[in-house]
């Protein structure tokens, strides 16, 4: 087995439109579900009807990538990026989601962005829906709980596939689709009206509707772009049993399957038996129409994209909580934590890569991994972000081991190559980037970009194709 990265390995970075673009109503863009959330998504489960002028919305300007994309792409090219993952904001193309004709100004922006990437040999890796369902569809239909969204999404996909078929080779349908059972507002635009489990019926029906929409997107992609690849995308930060107690072992296994159920359907093409028992136990009966199961079976995804940030421990008698980094249970005493309390576990990263490749025997793509931390600017203006570089080194080393284990891994995109607004907390203080953006939590700042020490470090990793992980001296 090889102990090095493949020659065509896709090194890069990843962002989401709603966390970086800003320009939230510019050029006839409509509102999406993220535009109405002040202070991040972790606090919201209800559909917010409108903008409250008394609140500050970090995403409305974000880091103004909409007007700075040429500068940012040039900096990523300087690092040697082979790919750049971002999303198309659905409401920038179809402001309410129900229009027949797309917004040409929105289409043109992504034309120019993709052209800027391709100018430097950077492959766009595009998420079609990244927590950006048009707000109108959430309000009118309760999001993906309604099958009305299936043809609307299909029309959206057909529009962007035809427009960008010569520019984009890598696509993903729904960002972290398994969060439909954990963060249903973000993942599926569902309003949770009760604190009990009555919303599970809507969540599972939304999941089925998204499976059908995913299959239709795969079919369209293969018909319109035979040389393109289209993946599904899940949040797959992992869980360990907290003890060797048999109940902890089996319930951890079952808990993990609540996420892997999604990739089982989209990668294997059918509902696994355990998922049917899970729904039955919750009193859920799906509305499945004629031909939908056959469609799901025929049009499976080409690869599995996933996010990995941390691990947590599971116990059968402890309630798990969730945020944008994954599930949160019992602290693992063997692991150090980030500034925001996220466990740092590179061995868990290798474990997860093996778990997924063993299960599906299809290519996997690490499309989110990174460390949110506080950056300190020295008197001379430099930013020596050692913790970020250590995290990167350990996870790249683990990824190299996973490839040596036999995992077929397409690429690695670090989450937030330049600082962006945190999805979960709405902060700028929680920084991921190799490029510092001058903006604070209150919206103050010049938006000036400056390189951190990790900029040159990641550049070295890419230039040596993951061979040189030696940390720089301060």
Automatic annotation (TrEMBL):
GO terms for biological process: carbohydrate catabolic process. Gene3D superfamilies: Glycosidases. The active site is at 368 (nucleophile). One of its GO terms (cellular component) is cytosol. Pfam families: Glyco_hydro_1. The keyword Amino-acid biosynthesis does not apply. Keywords: Glycosidase, Hydrolase. It comes from the Bacteria. InterPro entries: GH (IPR017853), GH_1_N_CS (IPR033132), Glyco_hydro_1 (IPR001360), Glyco_hydro_1_AS (IPR018120). GO terms for molecular function: beta-glucosidase activity. PANTHER family: 6-PHOSPHO-BETA-GLUCOSIDASE, GLYCOSYL HYDROLASE. This is 6-phospho-beta-glucosidase.
């Amino acid at each position: 087995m090889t102990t090095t990265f493949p020659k065509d390995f896709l090194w890069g970075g990843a962002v989401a439109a709603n966390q970086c673009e800003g320009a939230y109503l510019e050029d006839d863009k409509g509102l999406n579900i993220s535009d109405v959330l002040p202070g991040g998504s972790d606090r919201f489960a209800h559909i917010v009807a409108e903008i409250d002028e008394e609140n500050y919305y970090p995403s409305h300007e974000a880091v103004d990538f909409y007007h700075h994309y040429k500068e940012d792409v040039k900096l990523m090219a300087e690092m040697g990026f082979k790919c750049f993952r971002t999303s198309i904001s659905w409401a920038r193309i179809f402001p309410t989601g129900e229009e027949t004709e797309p917004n040409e100004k929105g289409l043109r922006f992504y034309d120019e962005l993709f052209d800027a990437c391709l100018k430097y040999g950077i492959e766009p890796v595009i998420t079609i829906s990244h927590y950006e369902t048009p707000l109108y569809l959430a309000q009118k239909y309760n999001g993906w709980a309604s099958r009305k969204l299936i043809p609307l999404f299909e029309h959206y996909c057909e529009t962007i596939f035809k427009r960008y078929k010569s520019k984009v080779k890598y696509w993903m349908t729904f960002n972290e689709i398994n969060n439909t059972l954990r963060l249903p507002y973000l993942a599926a635009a569902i309003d949770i009206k009760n604190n009990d489990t009555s919303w599970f019926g809507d969540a599972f029906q939304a999941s089925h509707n998204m499976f059908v929409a995913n299959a239709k997107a795969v079919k369209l992609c293969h018909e319109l772009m035979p040389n393109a690849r289209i993946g599904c995308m899940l949040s797959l930060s992992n869980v360990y049993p907290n003890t060797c107690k048999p109940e902890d072992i089996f319930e951890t296994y079952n808990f993990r399957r609540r996420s892997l159920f999604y990739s089982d359907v989209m990668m294997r093409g059918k509902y696994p038996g355990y998922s049917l028992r899970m729904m039955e136990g919750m009193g859920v009966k799906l509305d499945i129409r004629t031909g939908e199961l056959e469609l799901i079976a025929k049009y499976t995804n080409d690869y599995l994209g996933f996010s990995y940030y941390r691990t947590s421990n599971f116990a059968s008698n402890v309630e798990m909580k969730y945020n944008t980094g994954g599930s949160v249970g019992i602290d693992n005493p063997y692991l150090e934590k980030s500034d925001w309390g996220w466990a740092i576990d590179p061995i868990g990263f290798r474990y997860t890569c093996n778990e997924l490749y063993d299960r599906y025997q299809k290519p996997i793509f690490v499309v989110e991994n990174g460390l949110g931390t506080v950056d300190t600017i020295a008197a001379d203006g430099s930013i020596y972000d050692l913790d970020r570089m250590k995290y990167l080194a350990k996870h790249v080393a683990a990824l190299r081991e996973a490839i040596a284990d036999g995992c077929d891994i397409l690429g690695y995109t670090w989450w937030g190559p330049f600082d962006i607004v945190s999805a979960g907390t709405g902060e700028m203080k929680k920084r991921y980037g190799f490029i510092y953006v001058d903006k604070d939590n209150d919206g103050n700042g010049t938006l000036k970009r400056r390189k951190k020490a990790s900029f040159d470090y990641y550049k070295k990793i890419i230039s040596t194709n993951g061979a040189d992980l030696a940390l720089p001296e301060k």
